[in-house]
Amino acid sequence: MPTTALYRSLKIIGSPLLTGLYHHEVMGLENLPKGPFIVASNHLAFCDSIFIPLAMPRTVNFLAKSDYFTTPGVKGRAMAAFFRGVGQLPMDRSGGQKSQESLNAGAQVLKDGGVIGIYPEGTRSPDGRGYRPKVGVARLALETGVPVLPVGQIGTDLIQPSGSNRIRLRHDGKPIQVRTIIGKPLTFEEYTDGSDLSHRVQREIADRIGSEIRALSGQVYVDVYADRVKKLMADKNMSADEAVAHLQR
């Protein structure tokens, strides 16, 4: 998938602008592999999808939630045009065939030599902790045979706290520092023939990827899915801790 003019323009403008507003430190650029690869990161705030592309020399095409592309009305159409313009691909998270079709679009970018970005947890963390990863990232890695590059994002939740649309420039009166930490690429040679796509294998690989991401981000692990926690928080007016406790009964 070629780099769009909008993507290039935003990167040229956004890099010095955000560097001026925030202290963005990028670590581990020496770990970037050649050829196609998958960027797998934790997800603390919407702006992760801005800071990660700014950190990467190559274009990163993120699998973004399909809601960004299907919202009705003028605002919805404008939003969809923007996300397509910056190279993001709709990701249907309902599971089954629709999710597989979304992954197929990402696989095609990788087959064409590009870079795909994905948040294995499937949604933003409701409270800054690291939640159980979905297996989509594992399936994409197994089907394409490309390496997975774990990335830890730190500090973006201070810019946009969970549950808020407000953008902050400072935290406790001090400039906010964002760190993008790039780990060593993960390969799964033992599965390169693609013959074993069982859920057990996908679960094993997804968990390994999630563990590597948390080692970079320093997040505490919670062994439930973040989207289920957020649903309980919204439906039952629970705190994240209450929702986690309910799901772990």
UniProtKB/TrEMBL annotation:
Q: What is a single Pfam family found in this protein's UniProt entry? A: Acyltransferase
Q: Any idea where the Phospholipid/glycerol acyltransferase domain is?
A: 37-156
- The keyword Phosphoprotein is annotated on this UniProt entry: no
Q: Tell me which domain of life the UniProt entry assigns to the organism this sequence originates from.
A: Bacteria
What InterPro entries does the annotation carry? Plipid/glycerol_acylTrfase
Does this UniProt record's set of keywords contain Transferase? yes
UniProt GO MF annotations: 1-acylglycerol-3-phosphate O-acyltransferase activity
Q: Which residues form a coiled coil?
A: none
Listed under GO biological process in this entry are:
phosphatidic acid biosynthetic process
SUPFAM superfamilies (UniProt xref): Glycerol-3-phosphate (1)-acyltransferase
A single GO cellular-component term from the record reads: plasma membrane
Q: Which UniProt keywords apply?
A: Acyltransferase, Transferase
Q: Which PANTHER family match?
A: 1-ACYL-SN-GLYCEROL-3-PHOSPHATE ACYLTRANSFERASE
Put simply, this protein is called: 1-acyl-sn-glycerol-3-phosphate acyltransferase
